[in-house]
Specification:
This protein has 399 residues and is an alpha/beta fold. The chain has helices at 16-26, 34-47, 58-68, 89-93, 111-121, 151-160, 226-236, 259-290, 325-334, 362-367, 381-397; strands spanning 52-55, 76-79, 97-101, 122-124, 129-131, 134-142, 164-168, 176-177, 202-206, 219-223, 296-298, 305-306, 312-316, 340-341, 356-358, 370-373. It has 2 domains: 16-269, Type I PLP-dependent aspartate aminotransferase-like (Major domain) (Aspartate Aminotransferase, domain 2, 3-Layer(aba) Sandwich), CATH 3.40.640.10; 272-397, Aspartate Aminotransferase, domain 1 (Alpha-Beta Complex), CATH 3.90.1150.10. The structure holds pyridoxal-5'-phosphate (PLP).
């Protein structure tokens, strides 16, 4: 194969150029313009929710959610250790304290450890959950790689202890629980048919370059009621109360999406169902190719859900593969295949070294074993076969 196979690149096969040109021709390029409201409407329709606010990034969507949830300096926010650091940094923007809860085998927050932490490490006074003398105000649950977290259990615990739930659905646009009709062999979920990002109190989405749809940079935020979304939108536009006289009743942010980005986004939303279909088909191809391969396992997505299958994860058998991840990635790169290691643990990054962690076992386990393999929507069947064959041969060689 003489073509380089990237991990995850944008796909602009649709109306992207047309809509961006249109936005430029109309002169609406900044934080006002029809494409922004159109993107918000399209997303709301897609997610079967009432109201969505487009913003400048996934990170800003998470930050706005924390602000809206009332997270204040000294509050505790429960967070994941094994994900992109942008899920946790906004906790620091609020001068709140992150506490790291382990993940389960879906890489998402472990609902049992969450419950255990609340029950055994905290006290509940009927309205507030206290960790030492701090209030546990919120949790950030990430739907890692498009895999739905166990929202039923997580929501049960969160409701019991009055913890606000921020869903980081930046990697999971389109992931949902099966509907009652679809769930033939699965248990029907309390959240049947519901999309990732529309189950908790707030849901954050990202349209950064490698996400399932992209606006270059951009994001969106939703909430469990329409008024709250209006307020999030208001906060994202410098909390301007009056369109003409610069009256502000709150501290706002410059977090609004631009019309240029939204023009891209509207085109990308048109293609989203097709992108998801391709991701799902490609996952099935990989699954077939790695079936019965003893040195690495393709990680499944949660049953009872339909995932957008954004990223694919191979779990290496570390009892037999001793080669460091870096060497594996470097070798595959020379073969024209871009791969990457799952993230380093956030609690091991310099700004987080002093934070509390709770029973981290699976996060460090997976951090050493997971290799992400090419998952762009443009990848061909032939390329997938080449990727699988090259990886399998190499792993056999090094054991
Ligand atoms: C991409 C991503 C973000 C941040 O989104 P940006 O749009 O890049 O700010 C947050 N959390 C996770 C898990 C992500 O993958």
């Amino acid at each position: 194969m003489n073509k380089y196979i990237p991990l995850s690149i944008p796909n602009f096969e649709g109306n992207e150029k047309k809509y961006v040109d249109d936005a430029i021709e109309q002169g609406w390029v900044s934080t006002g313009g029809a494409y922004i409201t159109r993107l918000e409407k399209d997303m709301a329709a897609f997610l079967h929710t009432e109201n969505v606010a487009a913003c400048q990034s996934g990170t800003s969507a998470i930050h706005l959610s924390l602000v809206e949830a009332g997270v204040k300096p000294g509050d505790v926010v429960l967070v994941p250790p094994l994900t992109f650091i942008a899920a946790v940094n906004p906790v620091k923007y609020q001068f709140a304290t992150p506490v790291f809860i382990d993940c389960d085998d879906s890489f998402c927050m472990d609902p049992d450890k969450l419950k255990e932490f609340c029950e055994e490490e905290c006290t509940f006074n009927g309205t507030e959950l206290k960790y030492k003398n701090q209030t546990v105000k919120a949790l950030v649950v990430v739907h890692v790689f498009g895999n739905m977290a166990d929202m039923e259990s997580i929501m049960t615990t969160a409701k019991k202890y009055n913890i606000k739930v921020i869903e980081d659905a930046t990697e999971a646009l389109g992931t949902r629980y099966l509907t009652a009709e679809e769930a033939v062999n699965d248990q029907i979920s309390t959240y049947a048919g519901k999309y990732a990002g529309t189950i908790g109190d707030y849901g954050a989405f990202s349209f950064n370059g490698n996400k399932i749809i992209t606006t270059g940079g951009g994001g969106a935020v939703t909430a469990n009621n329409s008024k709250t979304v209006d307020h999030l939108r208001y906060l994202s536009t410098q909390a301007k109360d009056d369109p003409h006289y610069y009256i502000h009743h709150e501290v706002g942010y410059n977090y609004r999406m631009t019309n240029l980005q939204a023009a891209l986004g509207v085109a990308q939303m048109e293609e989203l169902p097709e992108f998801i279909r391709r991701k799902q088909r490609n996952y099935e191809l990989y699954k077939e190719l790695f079936k019965d391969f003893e040195l690495a396992e393709l990680i499944p997505f949660r049953s009872g859900t339909e995932s957008n299958k954004w990223f694919y994860s191979l779990k290496l058998d570390r009892s037999r593969i001793k080669v460091p991840m870096r060497d594996i990635i470097t070798y595959l790169d020379t073969k024209g295949i871009q791969t990457r290691a799952i993230w380093g643990l956030i609690n091991e990054q310099k700004p987080y070294l002093n934070e509390v962690t709770y029973k981290l076992e699976k996060a460090p386990y997976y951090a050493e074993r997971i290799l992400n393999i090419p998952s762009s929507t443009q990848i061909t069947e032939e390329e997938i076969q080449y990727v699988a064959k090259t990886i399998k041969e190499y792993l056999k060689d090094i054991t």
